[in-house]
Amino acid sequence: MSVTMQETAAREMPNGAEPMSQPAADPAAPAPRAIALRTEKLSAYYGGAQAVGDVDLTFEVGAVTAIIGPSGCGKSTLLRCLNRMHETTPGARATGRVRLGDVDVYAPATDPVEVRSMVGMVFQKPNPFPMMSVYDNVAAGPRLRGWKMSRREMDDLVERNLRRAALWDEVKDKLHRSGAALSGGQQQRLCIARALATDPSVLLMDEPCSALDPIATYKIEELVRELSHEVTIVIVTHNMQQASRVSERTAFMLAADDGVGRLVEFGKTDDLFTLPRDPRTEAYITGRFG
Amino acid sequence: MTAIAPTSAIPLRHRVVARRRFAQGAVVSLLLVATLLGVALLVTILSYVIFQGLPAINLAFFTERPRPFGEAGGGIAPSLIGTLLLAAVSGAIAIPVGIAAAIFVVEYRSGRFAAPVRFAAELIAGLPSIVIGVFVWAFLVRGLVGHYAAVAGAVALAVIMVPIVARTVEEVLKLVPNSLREAALALGAPRWKVILSIVLPTARAGVLTAAILAVARSAGETAPLLLTALGNDFFSTDLLRPIGALPLQIYRYAVSPYDDWHVKAWGASLVLVVVIGAVGLLLRFVARQRVR
Q1: A202-250: pLDDT as tens digits
Q2: Residue B72 confidence (pLDDT)
Q3: Which chain A residues touch B109 with a CB distance below 8 Å?
Q4: Residue range B188-210, pLDDT digits in tens
Q5: Which of A120, B44, B112, B180 could form a disulfide with A200, with the two C-beta atoms 3.0–4.6 Å apart?
Q6: What does the longest C-alpha to C-alpha distance in chain A come to?
Q7: At A22, phi and psi to the nearest 5?
Q8: A124 contacts: CB under 8 Å, gap ≥ 6
Q9: Is A34's Cβ below 8 Å from some Cβ in B?
Q10: Closest residue on chain A to B195 (Cα)
Q11: Strands A64-68 and A49-60
């Protein structure tokens, strides 16, 4: 059994780049990793309608966790609950718990602005600030948060984060041109650089490639794998191949007949895609619905 | 079927295409006529004002104060200064208030007070301007200030401008994509900073246009000034004294029985139109410069 899975793991990793760094499931010696983020009985509502029900999930430090499921299963809503963006929609609220390190995200004393400064977010459609240059887009986070920095320090920060987002070489000659003039894929990497610039410990990505062509998608996926060494990533995707390519763990969500999205299965990505425990997971990954 | 269908289908398609072409042509011609009518109206008014007003225009018209009837020459300088001063003071009052109201309605729309604020703005916008003049007359001229004064005129104009600014800026703010607000919020910015640093700069050109629109609208108002600023043939920049304004000057000259004053009324009309147009063009140019 473990042989099958190791083979699967090797097949899933592109170019066999790092198939062994994360040995496939060996229950006897699981590499113990810290938990960056944990949800407990997390539910989300839009007005009176419940969208997410009682989700318990853990996100490991330095790992990529994918959330998959058909449209309307609440995966994006769940993601938006993790940095309290959900409640910015009028009438939306969440119950249950989210723990970010030792911060209780939904405690009454917790300031949502503080939470969002620790958890970065990348959205479905690239949304660089259109009236700002490439440079100013990356500098936007520190400036909005009122960081006091010299011109030189800001230059360094911008370059460092554009490099982290694998965009520096493409934009270093047009730093002061509008960010909206870049291609779609470049814009999305600019948004990633912008999110990284404030040094979040967790990066949430809400279907970051759904508006991009395959080559731009490939670049973002490569970037996600690289970034996972320095930041915990949670990625929502409706693309199962993408989940299997970039993530170590996958959560599968499904909306029941009552419209409430619930967690069906959560585990190592390879296990979930090769030996799903739940028949609904198997039905979904084999393409029988969704 | 394959042998017959094409030959029988071709005439049918021709008829459909011909009908569509006809409808297309008819609609486009109607639109063209409507557009030409609008443009013709504008050109007629402008050219008539220019034709009638140009004879009154000379250097003295812009630099001198009005002379009593019978004396030749004289100008409308006090009214010109008065109109600019009233526009500046009323703009300084109304533009921030209007923008603030629009921000409140759009950015805090889940709040309980947003709908009443929008409703109030609509009611004020619907008030006849003479009623606003009467109100300010009762409140400031008969009340707080005690006599006719420029500041009363500025307040009356500001009351007219606030709903124009608020409603126009509201529409402009609604055009700012929500994804930008979300991006800024997700960066850990407090809401007020998102509005000041992201939403307003994105909507900058539209906000400027709203301000121009309101200033232009109010600069042409006559009724509320009759009861507040009163008019003044002497140079004055004192906010607590009566002040002249171009619409007041036009009104006074136009209702007079003297031909010379009628020409001057046309001249003042031309100046008013040009001033409003020039302010609009200038601000639009500035707005475009800063967007790039």
Answers
A1: 999 999 999 899 999 999 999 999 999 899 999 999 889 999 999 999 9
A2: 82
A3: 90
A4: 999 999 999 999 999 988 898 89
A5: A120
A6: 57
A7: -125, 85
A8: A76, A206, A207, A208, A210, A211
A9: no
A10: A144
A11: unpaired
Per-residue pLDDT, B9: 55
The pLDDT of residue B110 = 64
Q: Does residue A266 surpass a pLDDT of 60? A: yes
CATH number for the domain that contains residue A232: 3.40.50.300
Residue in the block written with tokens 């939470």: A115
Domain boundaries, chain B: 5-56, 62-291
Multiple choice CATH, B62-291, 1.10.3720.10, 1.10.290.10, 2.30.29.30, 3.40.50.620: 1.10.3720.10
B274 burial level (CB within 10 Å; 0-12, 13-18, 19+): middle
- Residue A142 CA to residue A117 CA, distance in Å, equals 10
Of B128, B219, B130, B210, nearest to B174 by C-alpha is B210
Task: Nearest by CB to A88, from B177, B182, B193: name it.
Answer: B182
A190 touches chain B (CB under 8 A): no
Q: Which residue intervals of B56-113 are DSSP H helices?
A: 59-63, 77-107
| ipTM exceeding cut-off 0.85 for this assembly | no
Q: Is the separation of the CB atoms in B45 and B35 below 8 Å?
A: no
For the record, the structure tokens of B44 come out as 């007629």
- Within 8 A by CB and 6+ apart from B195, the residues are B103, B107
Q: DSSP E strands: which ranges in chain A?
A: 35-46, 49-60, 64-68, 92-100, 103-104, 119-122, 202-206, 232-236, 249-255, 261-268
Task: Please give the structure tokens belonging to residue A62.
Answer: 């330095």
